[in-house]
Amino acid sequence: MAEPTAAPLMYDWSFKSHEECQNYYANVTMDGGVWCNATWDHILCWPPSPPDTQVELPCPPLKGVDPTQMAHRRCTGDGQWQGRVLDAGPEDPTEGWSNYTMCFIPEIRQLMDKLYASSEEDAKLKMQVASTGRVMETVGLAISLATILVSLVIFSSFRSLRNNRTRIHWHLFVAMKIQLVIRLTLYIDQYIIRSLHSDDYTPRGIDNTPVLCESFYVLLEYARTAMFLWMFIEGLYLHNMVTITVFQDKPNYRVYYVLGWGLPVLMTAVWAVVTAIKYTDTECWWGYNLSPYFWILEGPRLTVIVTNLLFLLNILRVLITKLQATLSSETHQIKKAVRAAIVLLPLLGITNSLQMVHSPLDSNLVQFAVWTYFSTFLTAFQGFFVALIYCFMNNEVRAALRKSWEDYYSQRCIEDNRRLSLASFQIYRVHGPTSKKHSQDDANGSVAQEIHVTSV
């Protein structure tokens, strides 16, 4: 086999059609038999090549692609590009097959090997499942963000809710809000770019702007790490309140702030530096969550999950022991306590362990769909469940909201009665008492109003 054709030092990425590609190489002299024609495969413009040669071009600077590697095509001995015909038509006579296998970074290549392990049709169906899962995820993130924002407003509006427990809840909700806003912003940006993208136009957005894109993902991972550490603080505080009475004094919030907001800065900075060095040539660090370096962040997060699980088991043990010692015959209360503790699972980050397990791409379609929808639902709606249990179902919050409504209703009644009294007085001044009976009724009404106002 002949040696591969030498790759050009610089490649022109401006080709947008097969016609442009052929015009670019129109003056190339083709000697020595029938050559393969210049062709554009919608990504690269392949030059006319002599028979029985392999042509190499630099990989395109796309997501998940290493541009230092080479893509290649094979021109057969009869002057035809080797491989199946992609779209042989009068307007776009692209033919042959371009091998981009070596272009992908190892993590993406392994992912694609799993995706196409069964068949191309199966891979397309799994991609449709993943697309539906993204829609579910976007809806869940939006609902979670709305409930988190409402919860933050509630916690900030009532002085009675500014205690140790709700103070920790507030910081957890802020960390969740940051990562929810970033994820929704990235998803909306990706949707807009894909909707407006065409062969002649690629809009600029976060997802394809150098430095800006990486900065968004660094901030996203910082917010996720902070969320995990505040979940750990939630578990630690709950565990100490239930099991260790000596810790029921006011917690040291300086330590909590350093742990919840400061430590994630250090962890994220170390991960970002390592990733920037290892993914220098990859656009927007695409596929970074599949690399082993991501465990710089995932390792501590997994430690938080395991620790909170141990906290939960010990809380269950203490609750059951105390109930058995005091009301051993009332097993119903024990079951109720166990159920209440299990509800805390999504709050303490245990459901996030599903995100640390790679999706079963090499399994059958049903298993992949069940895993995708189940894990997506739990992670996307986690903010909603946290707000529901820590805020909307919290007795202190409900009592504060009830008192606020009662105060508002009482004040409204007072204002209505005052307006009614003023109207009655004005009528009296204009018309005077029409009869003794009416005067007595007015007097009784005024007394009744005063009694009502006083009682309110």
Structure description:
- By secondary structure, the protein is mainly alpha-helical.
- Helix content is 60%, strand content 4%.
- It contains twelve helices and four strands.
- The chain has helices spanning 18-24, 106-115, 120-157, 164-196, 212-243, 253-278, 295-326, 331-342, 365-380, 382-392, 395-431, 436-455, and strands at residues 39-40, 45-46, 53-58, 70-75.
- A two-stranded antiparallel sheet has the order 1-2. The chain has a two-stranded antiparallel sheet with strand order 3-4.
- A hairpin with a 4-residue loop joins strand 1 (39-40) and strand 2.
- Helix 3 packs across helix 4 (164-196), helix 3 (120-157) runs parallel beside helix 9 and helix 3 (120-157) packs parallel to helix 10 (382-392).
- The longest helix has 38 residues, at 120-157.
- The radius of gyration is 33 Å and the shape is elongated.
- The N and C termini lie far apart (98 Å).
Q: What is the rounded Rg?
A: 33 Å
Total strands: the figure is 4
Number of helices: 12
Q: Strand fraction band?
A: under 5%
Q: Mind describing the biggest β-sheet?
A: 2 strands, antiparallel
